[in-house]
Amino acid sequence: MDNQLDMKVLRAIHILSTSGSVTKAAEILQVTPGAVSYLINKARKSTGSALFFRTRSGMKPNTLALELSQRYQSINQDYNVDGSAFSPGGRAIVLSTPSILELLLTITLLNNENEQTQLAFCRPSDTDSERLARLRNKEIDIDIGSRLPVDNSIIQLKLFSCDVGILVRKGHTTITPPFTLDDWHQNRHAIWSRGMHFISDDIAQTQHFRALFEKQDIAFVASSSLNLITLCAFSNLVILVPTTIGKKTLNILPVQLLDAPPELQMRYEGYLHYHHSFSSDHYFQQLLIRLQTFLQS
């Protein structure tokens, strides 16, 4: 249905209606022609209408496309863009991130009375190729997670780098600091279905870690990182977490973060990705600084 179309799709319809060319629309939107076609096809599936037809003078909008273009203009007139697509009063910034980070960021924003950023969180993609496609097509504005493969249209920003820690509930019935390899073998574990991509420069250490990781007595595989950590807080299950994330959960859940024994010591790097067309957007860049400050504090 056309009432399900978001601002990105409406804007693509409007720009194509006025420019008459997918190539020109792509230049204006600072995306690839393929990304424009993707958004238009998304609108076609939603509306059940062709929306545009080819002529010798270019792409011409049908009646519905013109109505949607007018809708975009009407909505856009109410925005306080102030030179930025994301200023207060403008559209929300669409952010894809693990659910535990969604919770932590939301709590931080709610506790800041001066914060006016509008964030719209969405479910993370299952694969790196899907993550890249959503960034290229501007379905999402920011992707936070493990590092993605290099792409000329996507900018990567390292948010944090930290050790891997052990998260267990407070008052765990069998574990007391320090956490040992015996604790690792004698307790049951929970893992995140998407994985955490722990790394090390030491090949032997990486191989040793993988061998121990594969020998876990896994009781639960969570599709959500928030569910994973919440389950840990209310059971005797053990999980591995980046210490940057683990430390921030201590104030909201009854958990304790323990150092990993030498055999399990690894690193995790968290990256933020966004489309290169936002690199000169002042408001967007200020948000990136705030996100980086939050995760490094």
Automatic annotation (TrEMBL):
InterPro entries: LysR-type_TF, LysR_HTH_N, WH-like_DNA-bd_sf, WH_DNA-bd_sf. The keyword Glycosyltransferase does not apply. Pfam families: HTH_1. SUPFAM superfamilies: Periplasmic binding protein-like II (SSF53850), Winged helix' DNA-binding domain (SSF46785). Keywords: DNA-binding, Transcription, Transcription regulation. Residues 5-62 form the HTH lysR-type domain. GO terms for molecular function: DNA binding; DNA-binding transcription factor activity. It comes from the Bacteria. Belongs to the LysR transcriptional regulatory family. This is HTH-type transcriptional regulator LeuO. It comes from Buttiauxella agrestis. The gene is leuO_1.
